[in-house]
Amino acid sequence: MDMEKLSEEFANGWRAAKKDNHVDGETSDGYHTFNELYNYRMLYNAALFNEWGGPWPVYDVHKSKKHHDGTIPFDDPKWFIVVAELPTGQISNHYKIEEAWDLFYDVPERELPNVYDGHTPEVAAQRLLDYLKERYNGRAYLS
Fold first, then answer.
1. Are 64 and 110 a contacting pair, CB within 8 Å?
2. Which of 23, 25, 22, 24 is nearest to 38 (CA)?
3. How far is CA 41 from its chain centroid?
4. Residue 25: in which H helix or E strand, if any?
């Protein structure tokens, strides 16, 4: 399935859920629920960050129970942040400690993470795509 068609189907599913005024973790795009997609993202993120920050660190990767300014994520001590500094820029995600802390087993813990550079999810996604293009010499299928 091409990305354009998949995006259109997701948007249609989102509009239908929004019309019903009921969007939660079980809301689906017709293939996966938000809960399933969040879980996949968490597992992919942990696998990759463990590789990057493991015994032979490739990049500056770390986790913290605080933000760079000392605040607690979402004002809730049940959350943490993971950060990676790639050649293409900083990327980060937040997860619940009880669900994910131990999944990031090779990611060193810091009292405070690096200073947040203001990236949005869209910017982080572009940085990952740029990383892939740069790392793999811009192969044609990476558009």
1. yes
2. 25
3. 6
4. none
Q: What is the mean pLDDT of the chain?
A: 86
Report residue 27 as tokens.
Answer: 């809301």
Helix (H) or strand (E) holding 98: helix 97-100
pLDDT of residue 47: 97
Tell me the per-residue pLDDT of 18-64, one tens digit each, with 9 for 90 and over: 566 677 767 777 777 878 888 999 999 999 999 999 889 999 999 99
Rounded-to-integer distance, Cα 42 and Cα 93, Å: 9
CA separation for the pair 90, 127 (Å, rounded): 8
Regarding beta strands 79-86 and 89-96, do their DSSP bridges make them parallel or antiparallel, or are they unpaired? antiparallel
Look at residue 12 in the predicted model and tell me its pLDDT.
Answer: 61
Question: Which residue from 108, 53, 118 is spatially nearest to 86, judged by alpha carbons?
Answer: 53
What is the C-alpha to C-alpha distance for residues 22 and 128, in angstroms, rounded to an integer? 32
pLDDT value at position 143? 52
Q: Which two tokens stand for residue 45?
A: 């993120």
Q: Where are the alpha helices (DSSP H) in 1-143?
A: 3-19, 34-53, 97-100, 121-135
